[in-house]
From TrEMBL:
The lineage of its organism: Eukaryota, Metazoa, Ecdysozoa, Arthropoda, Chelicerata. InterPro entries: ABC_transporter-like_ATP-bd (IPR003439), ABCG_transporters (IPR050352), P-loop_NTPase (IPR027417). It is a multi-pass membrane protein. It comes from Medioppia subpectinata. This is ABC transporter domain-containing protein. GO terms for cellular component: plasma membrane.
Length: 115
């Protein structure tokens, strides 16, 4: 979570090795403690990029937005890891998240359980 320009999309681009032509990136991406190549990450994951549909609740009313996030939470409870960006969730939607990473100015402001 974070304001526009806080670095949410850049973080997802780095994790998935997507749209990096304008970035200088150092380091490795780990998956379950193991270095993972961009090709391996692409074969194990799906990335819907930022447009009207990246952020999963963009353009939806509060009822539908809550249903989408609840569906993502159900998928996570079945063993999937779900990463999504969101600007301003309602309090009801925020309560559905168990872990959050708050970003500001390209840095992590908070990372942990929502409680």
């Amino acid at each position: 979570m974070g304001a526009s320009g806080s670095g949410k999309t850049t973080l997802l681009n780095v994790l998935t090795a997507t749209n990096l032509s304008k970035l200088s990136v150092r380091g490795s991406v780990l998956l379950n403690g193991q270095v993972v190549s961009p090709a391996t990450m692409a074969s194990l994951s799906s990335y819907i990029q930022q447009h009207d549909f990246d952020e999963p609740t963009t353009g939806l009313d509060s009822f539908m937005a809550q249903n989408i996030v609840q569906t993502l939470k159900t998928m996570a409870s079945e063993g999937r890891t779900i990463l999504c960006t969101i600007h301003q969730p309602s309090s009801h939607i925020f309560e559905l998240f168990e872990h959050i990473l708050l970003m500001a100015d390209g840095r992590v402001a908070f990372m942990g359980k929502t409680g």
